[in-house]
From TrEMBL:
Alphabetical UniProt keywords: Signal
UniProt xrefs under SUPFAM superfamilies: Lipocalins
Native organism: Amblyomma parvum (South American tick)
TM region(s), chain numbering: none
Tree of life domain: Eukaryota
Signal peptide: 1-20
This protein's name: Secreted protein
Amino acid sequence: MATLGVILLCLLAGMTYVQGRIEARYDDDSEMSPEIKSIVRRVNASKVVNNSKSVYLAKLSGKSSIFKNLYCVRSEYLSYGDDNKTTYRTLEALFKNEEDTSSSNTSIRVSANISLQVQRNEKIYPQILIVNLLNNISGLLPNTSGNDFAVPDKYELPVMYAAGQCLILRNSKEGPDSGCSLWIPGEYNTKPPFCCLFIYAFMCE
């Protein structure tokens, strides 16, 4: 029965997005049918955010040149603050080093600690994941251009889909043109679940 529920959630999320309903309901979910409401209430970012295992960035869409040579991103669990409902994790990224002209293929490593809070508001969908950088990485990022924004300390990322197998985040609250990211817990890293790839393809590609 649980498997059937996950499959139904995948199909409904995909079909709802194709019909343009999800984006339209960012500001008003009053027209959602009871069936859709019961489905989207099951979207829970905490299942991945609070995962004690490694979490990997599996897919990323967006126009920033910061993404150009990004090839590996991993997050490790640190702790959970029950008093403020906040999860603390590391965030480590590897970039190809364009300035290295040798054959050694060196990389640039950028790491930071982050805090994450799942924000529930009056709207049923989407949840918002509040991500705070706990140390400054602005001067560490390679391949930045004048068209890129300075790295902010706080991000508010709409949760497009979340289950135990994956987390799909919008890159900003500005809408679909901002791109998305797909995060996968370590046990699914080598083979992302079809459901997650299916929804990501509809929402982000």
